[in-house]
Amino acid sequence: MKCLFCAIVNGEIPADIVRQSDNVLAFNDINPVAPTHILIIPKIHSENAAELTLANPEVLIECFEMAASIAKERELNGYRTVFNTGADGGQSVFHAHLHLLGGRALSWPPG
Ligand code: AMP
Ligand code: ZN
């Protein structure tokens, strides 16, 4: 099956792009659960964060760097970064993506 987020990287499916580098793309989540809800993804396909960690650790770090940079630019009063991994982890799109959530107080623990 075709990968949705690879299609976004390739420009085959539109996305509301926030920022990008050579290796990483950030775009607004289509179903935001916070005022800032951005997905930060590697441009090269990895199924999840575990695979990305093994295949391309420097790109994993770049995802977190971009999250921190966007949060700083938006002057967020704190934020949350989450990689959901696997079915019980709540992953629904199997191209690694870092959720950047902020702009409101976030409760803990998550559901
Ligand atoms: P997860 O459940 O962690 O795999 O997160 C997948 C996220 O992708 C969800 O928050 C969805 O709202 C989001 N999403 C799904 N399709 C799109 C799309 N075409 N553009 C932007 N975000 C999307
Ligand atoms: Zn993909």
Observed structural traits:
binds adenosine monophosphate; globular; 27% helix; 3 helices; 5-stranded antiparallel beta sheet; binds zinc ion; 111 residues; HIT family, subunit A; alpha+beta
Which small-molecule ligands are present, each listed once? adenosine monophosphate, zinc ion
Order of helices and strands: HEEEHHEE
What's the tally of helices? Answer: 3
- End-to-end Cα distance, whole Å, is 29 Å
Fill in the CATH topology: HIT family, subunit A
**Secondary structure tally: strands:** 5
Question: What do you see in this structure?
Answer:
The protein is an alpha+beta fold. The protein has one domain: HIT family, subunit A, CATH 3.30.428. Helices cover 27% and strands 23% of the residues. The protein has three helices and five strands. Strands 1-2-3-5-4 form a five-stranded antiparallel β-sheet, with helices on one face. Strand 1 and strand 2 form a beta hairpin. The longest helix is centred in the middle third of the chain and has 17 residues. The chain is globular. The mean pLDDT is 97. The structure holds adenosine monophosphate and zinc ion. The site of adenosine monophosphate has 11 residues, from loops.
Structure summary:
The chain has 111 residues and is α+β, with helices and mostly antiparallel strands. The protein contains three helices and five strands, in the order αβββααββ.
Topology, pairings included?
Elements (H helix, E strand, L loop, with lengths): L3 H6 L7 E4 L3 E5 L7 E7 L6 H7 L1 H17 L5 E4 L15 E5 L9
Bound molecules: adenosine monophosphate and zinc ion (ZN).
